[in-house]
TrEMBL record:
MF terms in GO: DNA binding; DNA-binding transcription factor activity
Protein keywords: DNA-binding, Transcription, Transcription regulation
Organism per entry: Methanomethylophilus alvi (strain Mx1201)
DNA-binding keyword on record: yes
Superkingdom, natural source: Archaea
Entry protein name: Transcriptional regulator, ArsR family
SMART domains per record: HTH_ARSR (SM00418)
PANTHER family in the record: TRANSCRIPTIONAL REGULATOR, ARSR FAMILY, TRANSCRIPTIONAL REPRESSOR SDPR
Keyword Transcription: yes
Domain HTH arsR-type: 39-132
Organism lineage string: Archaea, Methanobacteriati, Thermoplasmatota, Thermoplasmata, Methanomassiliicoccales
Gene3D superfamilies noted in UniProt: Winged helix-like DNA-binding domain superfamily/Winged helix DNA-binding domain
InterPro entries xrefs: ArsR-like_HTH (IPR011991), HTH_ArsR_DNA-bd_dom (IPR001845), HTH_MetalResp_TranReg (IPR051081), WH-like_DNA-bd_sf (IPR036388), WH_DNA-bd_sf (IPR036390)
Amino acid sequence: MSENMCGSETFDGIPEVPDEVGGMVERAGGIDKIVRGLPSEDVLTEKCQIFAALSSSVRLRIMYILAGADLCPSAIKVLTGMSESRISYHLDILEGAGLVKHGPWRRWRIYSLTEEGRAFMYASERSDANAI
């Protein structure tokens, strides 16, 4: 680290990093270790899909419904009061993000949470409990 004109230090080529921040980076093992710990672009893209899918209260409601029971779109329609086309739209987004899956049962399509969807709901329930 070297001193710059503002009195702050230059840290690995990043100008004006306060001493406290430089110390935090050093305690974390340095910039290289932080960069090596970053997920790949593919993993980041996948996580973005998940966060985008969960950014809708409608989709979160569907996730909570499916956490209670595996259901067909018609049952979800009754529970949410939404049209079947709107339900299908949201289920497609959740499925594309890997949070729900469907399978046939007789002549219906039954939706359920994937392992990743269940993990999210478990984490969500834990954070809800900690907020109380």
